[in-house]
Design a protein that fits this description.
Elements lengths: L1 H7 L4 H15 L8 E2 H8 L4 H11 L7 E9 L2 E4 L2 H8 L18 E7 L1 H4 L5
Helix pairs in contact: 1-2, 2-3, 2-4, 3-4
Length: 127
């Protein structure tokens, strides 16, 4: 995995380092959390630039790597509910996210983005 990240980000060493920090920190954990917030993962990057952190996390969530998976949640009746993958796809294209029960768009301010462990982190071969 290190080699893939290094090859992909050879021209942007700061993004490469951020990706490697997250990959190493998460792959060495004995267990994974169900969800990671942007802030939690940002700390692992050891970077202070939010746009760099976003670039690194979105890269780690791409289907090629499967280190992270982007997750969207919204609050309903005091509970956080994860939106289905098709709504995540709409959100990533800049389209409205539709409430699964009411069929109405969910205001962007009410959508919480987080990350779940991808297939690579869920397997015993992560390290």
């Amino acid at each position: 995995m290190d080699g893939v990240i290094q090859d992909d980000w050879a021209d942007e060493p700061s993004v490469m380092r951020a990706c490697l920090h997250v990959w190493h920190a998460l792959s060495k954990r004995a267990y994974q959390l169900d969800h990671y917030s942007f802030a939690e993962l940002a700390q692992l990057t050891e970077a202070s630039d939010e746009s760099l952190v976003a670039k690194a996390l979105l890269y780690l969530a791409n289907p090629k790597l499967k280190v992270l998976k982007t997750c969207l949640m919204y609050e309903f009746d005091g509970q956080l509910i994860e939106l289905p993958d098709d709504e995540v796809a709409h959100y990533s294209k800049g389209e409205a996210v539709i409430h699964p029960q009411f069929g109405e768009p969910i205001p962007e301010s009410e959508i919480l983005m987080c990350f779940t462990p991808g297939v690579r982190l869920q397997s015993k071969d992560a390290t």
